[in-house]
Amino acid sequence: MVSTLPVSLEDIRAAARRITGRVLATPMVQSASLGELAGVPVHLKLEHHQTTGSFKLRGATNAVLSLSPAERSRGVVAASTGNHGRALAYAAKAEGAVATICMSRLVPENKVSEIRRLGADVRIVGSSQDEAQQEVDRLVREEGLVMVPPFDHPDVVAGQGTLGLEIIDTVPETAIVLVPLSGGGLAAGVAAAVKGISSTTKVIGLTMEKGAAMKASLDAGRPVQVEEVPSLADSLGGGIGLDNRVTFAMCRDLLDEIILLTEAEIAAGMRHAYACERQVVEGAGAVGIAALLAGKIVGNGPIVAILSGQNVDMEQHLRVINGTQPLYREEGL
User: Fold this and answer.
1) Is 308 assigned a catalytic role?
2) Residue 23 clears pLDDT 80, i.e. is over it
3) Burial class of residue 321 (count of CB atoms within 10 Å of its CB; 0-12, 13-18, 19+)
4) Is residue 4 part of a domain?
5) First to last CA, the chain
6) Interval 220-234: pLDDT, tens
7) By the 8 A CB rule, do 171 and 303 touch?
8) Same-domain check for residues 134 and 41
9) Is 141 found in the same domain as 106?
10) In total, how many domains does the chain have?
11) Pick the catalytic residue: 45, 54, 56, 210?
12) Coil, strand, or helix at residue 269?
């Protein structure tokens, strides 16, 4: 099944060879507290230790390196909720290219400022990633920039899939992989890698309860738009694109389940990561821990939870840890 999909195991292995030396092979640690809770070994893949603070550097680096020198000289552009923009700015700078990053007003300032620090041209457009994408389309059409999408691109998915190779290489007996789910680049890549090697391993996508575009699209049987709402897991916001060509099909065919998490559960995951695992993670990076704490994962073998990012506003993080952060609800507070 995997070989018929837009990104194959061999594509992911080629990406791993391409990005070696440019991204980190991140640590894997075992969690005694979560293992006791789950009744099986639980391992945490510390991808938030990646150079730019999230898994996104894998896909961005593979995509930039896959461009021709002429394409890189035109400059690259992408819409982002923050982490992809930071990764693309870093990867482009490393190869001598100029990056333009388009973001909505919902992207936290700590992520915007870091992208600017890396030398990218930042455009703040509208109040959704779909509106930011319209500016990307204009820049591609009118100024000739080369688009490197945050998720719906084979080279990006293949790059993210290298994380799955590391998981199975480190814990070959993995029974379940818990992966944050937004546009599906990470989930699709990890699932293709993991199931390409270990077909019996389950891959479960985790996302926030409100504004979960991939879950809504899979339920509808086609890509659909959803309203973007504030969330502690802001990196999981945004649509999947109505003309999605890669990640919708891969998530449909490869994910075993999708689990939704409330804001309170995400906050609990962030607190546990800090208090018990000594890890600072953003809301999106805490969803694996959150699902385990909420009793939403039942496994009969080792579980690996991907801690996908740490690019959180530290003032907000402290409020979450101290229990003073207002939780986002339908009314926005």
Assistant:
1) yes
2) yes
3) middle
4) no
5) 44
6) 999 999 988 889 998
7) no
8) no
9) yes
10) 2
11) 56
12) helix
